[in-house]
Structure formats: C-alpha cells, structure tokens
C-alpha cells in the first residue's frame, strides 16, 4: 500500500501538533515533523513520526533537504501573536516563500498553506494602522507566491482559531461569514485535503458548522 509522506512545517504549533497526530493515526499517511528546537522532538517521536530540526529563518537548502523524501508539504508555521512585525515578516512571509521554493527544489508538488481568514487587499486596508496589519500583509503576499508557484496547492483560510474540542463539522466555501473554528477541526480539514486530489487548486474559508468535514470539502470539489 502506498503511504503518503507529509512534511509538516511548524509541527510544534497547535494545528501542526494536531495534524501530526491525525496523520500518524490515519494508516495511509506518514508525518515528518519539522521543528526548530531539539526539546520539541520528543512528543513527535512518541507518535512514531520522523522529526528533524530546521530553522525557517535559515537557508532554503536546509528546508529542501528536509523535503527530499516527502510527497507533500503542509505549512502551518506562524510567528505567533507575541512577536513583533520583524518576526511576522521573517516567518509568515519569508519562511513561507522559502518553503515554497524549497518544495520546488526538492521536486515536491503538493503544498497546503494555512493562511489567515481574509488576506485580500481589502483586508489589508481594514487592518491598516493596527498591530494585525503586518500579519495580513505577510499572508497576502505568501498566498500570492504560492498561487504563482505552479505547485499543486490548496490554501485554507480558517476563521478565528480556538482550542475548543473539534466537532468534525465545519462550513467551507470560497467566502463564509466570519466565525470561530477549533484548531483540531482545521487539522482534520488539512488531513482530508491531503487525501483528496480534487482539493488541488482550491482556496477557501472555513469556520465551525453543521456539515461533516469530508462532505464540506466534497462540495468544494
């Protein structure tokens, strides 16, 4: 049986951690967890996942080397709300672009990006002057870079992320009303997107809802 091997960039984040666990439990996928610190590796080793240390602020070649033996890459990394604009640009924009370029260098065509709920030019204008603006700008241009990369991409725009337990039900569409969504459900959306080739080229917003994740994604494809 063919096992899809997936490099999870930003595996130590909350979505990334949920995703690695789901992948390892899937029976048809295998996770490779990319983290920045050695102490972050142990929890993934306990799940049976491959782990490796790569700093997103380092060289493209280092990321490409990590991606050499995988079939897909998921970018879940983020600088976090407590960092300044410099880290936002370094991780959410430059880190994403370097990972896209590393995918091309390693010959990995499948790429899933976890973006922000709204990364349109209008969203940048709405955020102008606030501390949130650099994040929206970074995601806006990272999304453009991925769309133009010619990779087999999927871009997921989650609503406000929560740590509530996942329900396995969402609402997903190119545009949905702003609402919350559990990180655990976003991880499952990623998992199902990896399994379904019809999700290639899709870009959509996702919030909590009343439709099973698989059915919600089927409606997109």
TrEMBL record:
Transmembrane segments: none annotated. InterPro entries: NAD(P)-bd_dom, NAD(P)-bd_dom_sf. It comes from the Bacteria. It holds the Pfam family NAD_binding_10. Residues 10-197 form the NAD(P)-binding domain. Signal peptide: none annotated. This is SDR family oxidoreductase. It comes from Aciduricibacillus chroicocephali. The lineage of its organism: Bacteria, Bacillati, Bacillota, Bacilli, Bacillales.
């Amino acid at each position: 049986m063919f096992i899809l091997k997936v490099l999870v960039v930003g595996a130590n984040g909350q979505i990334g951690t949920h995703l690695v666990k789901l992948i390892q439990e899937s029976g048809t996928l295998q996770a490779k967890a990319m983290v920045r610190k050695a102490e972050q590796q142990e929890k993934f080793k306990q799940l049976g996942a491959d782990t490796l240390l790569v700093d997103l602020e380092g060289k493209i070649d280092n990321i490409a080397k990590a991606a050499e033996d995988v079939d897909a890459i998921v970018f879940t990394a983020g600088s976090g709300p407590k960092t300044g604009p410099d880290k936002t640009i370094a991780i959410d924009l430059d880190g994403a672009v370097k990972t896209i370029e590393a995918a091309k260098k390693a010959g990995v065509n499948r790429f899933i990006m976890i973006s922000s709920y709204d990364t349109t030019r209008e969203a940048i204008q709405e955020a102008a002057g606030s501390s949130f603006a650099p994040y929206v700008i970074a995601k806006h241009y990272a999304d453009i870079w991925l769309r133009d990369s010619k990779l087999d991409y999927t871009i997921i725009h989650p609503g406000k992320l929560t740590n509530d337990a996942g329900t396995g039900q969402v609402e997903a569409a190119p545009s949905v009303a702003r609402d919350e969504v559990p990180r655990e459900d976003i991880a499952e959306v990623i998992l199902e997107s990896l399994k379904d080739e019809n999700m290639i080229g899709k870009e959509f917003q996702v919030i909590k809802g009343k439709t099973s994740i698989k059915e919600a994604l089927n409606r997109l494809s």
